[in-house]
């Protein structure tokens, strides 16, 4: 993973990006991966671990309407997390957000274990993109795949 994280930091530096993260199911793995890279502070300024709905609402402004209507594990929530993160720290210009069900509990027929939504807001391009994946594997594998895909989204959006 360190090569992908290293690529993210390098790409951010080359293209003038300051990254923020908003993490639910990964609980800080994105921040950890990026800060494992020496010199990351010039491109990654921090993130929010918002595991609980109240944290999503209070720290990064995800509306109770979104949480009550669509749920924390939703396209709408991932988009709001990405936007809300940048609203809290305007010095940054790109954010990555992840919210999902890593399991082994918490899944349902509509929202199975392994379901993860991603949001990425790029203030340089004005783009807000979202993505949805259903990963297989145990909790650790789902979280690792989520991290990997989040870093890939960042790379794509900064190039």
Look at the structure and give the CATH class. Answer: Alpha Beta
H/E series, N to C?
HEHEHHHEEEH
* Number of individual domains: 1
CATH topology: Maf protein
Globally, the shape reads: globular
What CATH architecture would you give?
Alpha-Beta Complex
Main sheet strand line-up: 2-1-3-4-5
Largest sheet: 5 strands, mixed
Low-pLDDT stretches: none
Q: How large a portion of the residues is in β-strands, by DSSP E?
A: 15-25%
Mean pLDDT over all positions? 97
Describe this structure in words.
The structure is a single chain. It is built from six helices and five strands, in the order H-E-H-E-H-H-H-E-E-E-H. The chain has helices at residues 2-15, 29-35, 53-60, 64-69, 75-88, 139-158; strands spanning 19-23, 44-49, 94-100, 115-122, 127-134. The protein has a five-stranded mixed β-sheet with strand order 2-1-3-4-5, sandwiched between helices. Helix 2 (29-35) links the parallel strand 1 (19-23) and strand 2 (44-49). Helix 1 (2-15) runs parallel beside helix 6 (139-158). The longest helix has 20 residues, at 139-158. It is globular and about 45 Å long.
Question: Key terms for this structure?
Answer:
single chain, 159 residues, alpha/beta, Maf protein, five-stranded mixed beta sheet, 6 helices, 5 strands, 21% strand
């Amino acid at each position: 993973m360190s090569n992908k994280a290293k690529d993210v930091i390098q790409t951010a530096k080359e293209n003038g990006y300051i990254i923020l993260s908003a993490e639910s199911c990964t609980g800080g793995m994105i921040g950890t991966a990026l800060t494992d890279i020496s010199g990351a502070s010039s491109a990654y300024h921090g993130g929010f671990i918002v595991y609980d709905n109240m944290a999503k609402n209070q720290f990064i402004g995800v509306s109770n309407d979104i949480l009550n209507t669509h749920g924390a594990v939703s396209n709408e929530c991932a988009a709001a997390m990405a936007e809300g993160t940048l609203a809290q720290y305007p010095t940054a210009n790109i954010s990555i957000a992840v919210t999902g069900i890593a399991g082994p509990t918490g899944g349902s027929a509509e929202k199975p274990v392994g379901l993860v939504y991603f949001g990425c807001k790029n203030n340089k391009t004005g783009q807000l993109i979202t993505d949805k994946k259903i990963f297989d594997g145990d909790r650790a594998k789902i979280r690792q795949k989520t991290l990997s895909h989040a870093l890939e989204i960042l790379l794509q959006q900064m190039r």
